[in-house]
Amino acid sequence: MQVKAWACELPATHHLPLSRWSTSDLAPEVCRSGWVASLSGSTLWRWLHQDAIRPWYHRSWIFPRDPNFADKAGRILDLYGRTWEGSPLKDDVFVISADEKTSVQARRRKYPTRACRPRGTMQVEHEYFRCGAWTYIAGLDVHHARIFGRCETQNGIEPFDRLVEQVMTRPPYNDARRVFWIVDNCSAHRGARAVQRLQSTYPQLVRIPLKWGTDSGEVGQRRSEATLVTAMISEVPHMSQDFCC
Q1: In this predicted model, which residue has the larger pLDDT, 207 or 35?
Q2: Whether pLDDT at 238 is above 60
Q3: Each residue's pLDDT tens digit, 86-106
């Protein structure tokens, strides 16, 4: 029990310059404490595994400092749970979470990648040409796992509007009852002018601003999924302008 209790303490508690425990770090400390004469890492792992103690795992998080955090994040989380103002969403109502990833370094290999073959691995050229810094703008259909993305040379109102057009002009969004767009406080989609601009073209679009400081927990997890495919454009032979997957 003493060993398990030690594993649940931070290394800094024992004045050790470690961010987290590993079995190779914890086992010698347990031996030096005098609790056991010798202890291997595998034995220590089995002891901790009995109570699902894994101090070498960690998860980053943001402590909510805003006293109104629950109210601000609540309606976003309700939309993720397919609820709006206390009522469940209809089947023809969709939720899009959109975000921008700026300064993406696009690269093009100097020689084409060779596919794998029997008794041979895929070959990827080490050297590459730099194709400049691009902006990737993405929208994630939260409940249907559809990702819409665009490569743009810069961020702004026009690039974001092109993403909106890419989504809102195709089924099922063009015939939807409502399409909620969850966006942050970027100037491309901030304020009453942005709402008027977007709804004048797409009346069914409802912009939901995500205030600074509320993008944590499940909110941040879901929104980050919209930028996971950034790696798909960081190395491309031809810079495609948009795609959907």
Answers
A1: 207
A2: no
A3: 999 999 999 999 988 888 888
Which residues are CB-contacts of 232 (< 8 A; sequence separation ≥ 6)? 149
Q: Report in angstroms the alpha-carbon separations of 161 from 7, 149, 168, 177, 244.
A: 51, 12, 10, 20, 16
Whether residue 14 contacts residue 29, with contact meaning beta carbons closer than 8 Å, is answered with yes
Helix (H) or strand (E) holding 159: helix 157-168
Bridge partners for 136 per DSSP: 101, 151
**Kind plus residue range of the DSSP H or E element containing 126:** none
| Cα–Cα dist 240/237, whole Å | 9
Helix boundaries (H) for 1-155: 2-7, 23-33, 41-49, 69-80
What would the pLDDT profile of 58-74 be if each residue is shown by its tens digit?
Answer: 887 777 777 887 887 88
Please state whether 71 falls in left (phi above 0), alpha (psi between -120 and 50) or beta: alpha
